[in-house]
Amino acid sequence: MLNGFTRMKSAAAGLMSAAAALALAGCATTASDGTGSTTGTSAAAEPRSPDGMRYLSQPILRDIYIADPSAHVFNNRIYIYGSHDIDGTTPEDDLGSHFEMRDYQVISMDRIGGTPTVHPVALDVSQVPWASKQMWAPDAAYRNGTYYLYFPAKDPQGIFRIGVATSTRPEGPFTQRPQPIQNSYSIDPSVFIDDDGAAYMYFGGIWGGQLQRWANGRFDPNGSNTDLGRDDQPALMPRVARLRDDMLEFAEAPREAMIVDENGRPLLGGDHDRRFFEAAWMHKHNGTYYLSYSTGDTHFINYATARTPYGPFTFRGRVLNPVQGWTSHHSITQVNGRWYLFYHDTQLSNRTHLRNMKVTELVHEADGTIRTIDPLIR
Ligand code: FUB
Q1: C or N terminus of the chain, fewer CB within 10 Å?
Q2: 155 classed as catalytic
Q3: Residues 85, 171, 188, 278: which is the catalytic one?
Q4: pLDDT per residue as tens digits for the range 100-155
């Protein structure tokens, strides 16, 4: 969510008009597999990144900016729950203050590559009594005739909490609850329902996501803006908590979802290429639990695997190399027997807070590893 250093784009590139980018991007053709992947389009017409790279996939949607796509299949239709990016007035900073999202709009498609439907506003910040601003990356789940929208937002004190809202329809509108989930904090909730019906929420994010300020169990308003500042100590880990059967509260205190190296040692705070930053997502493949997540300031989507939903998760490798834009956030979802990576970049705007969704196929190799995806091709 930050752009203070590393891959910040030039001001000139950042000011490229969205309209021009949209027109440019509209020239691409897509692959016949329907993933939106680019094919043998003539070189003159094919959109290129500011660095002259080709894009692996084209945006799913060009009407509004949606980021952090959490995809699910409900009633044989694909529903995507994401952040609705807007161009606000708050200056960019390293806490992501410029990510000023105020509502959620659900996107749906009948198939990968199908025409996306943009549904009306599903939930607005003004409808949530405890929330003041910054409706960041959401997720959704279904149980017993009810759809649940999980979302982070800042409370009036500026502390991120996680809320849940309900609907009888996957696209909403969702009815908010008066309070956030008890004992919830930080950002990026994602909900995984195991084969036995148990539901788990994974959440957390460092830097602007505030996870480091909860290191001692209570929010420290004077805590670090980044991480624990201890490179040779275990990194901050994502949190996991089983949800109650009614899906509205935690059934237990959140615990760390430990990510360890090949020797069983926790990844260290200084290991920026591998340690957790934000965007935790769980999927299960052939009985193995795959925890994938963003490394934030090094811009990778990594994954680690375990035999239980709580971990410990052993680091395995990269799902996605860096995209255009500072943030990287994804979901991994099975659609009609094939696995897909939903992700975002800034192809249409070249501005870090105006992101567009993409999708591409994801391959689990026979040995259980995930084939690394390059979103940009030289
Ligand atoms: O969209 C706002 C924040 O940026 C998300 O919560 C993070 O995961 C990052 O994508």
Answers
A1: C
A2: no
A3: 278
A4: 999 999 999 999 999 999 999 999 999 999 999 999 999 999 999 999 999 999 99
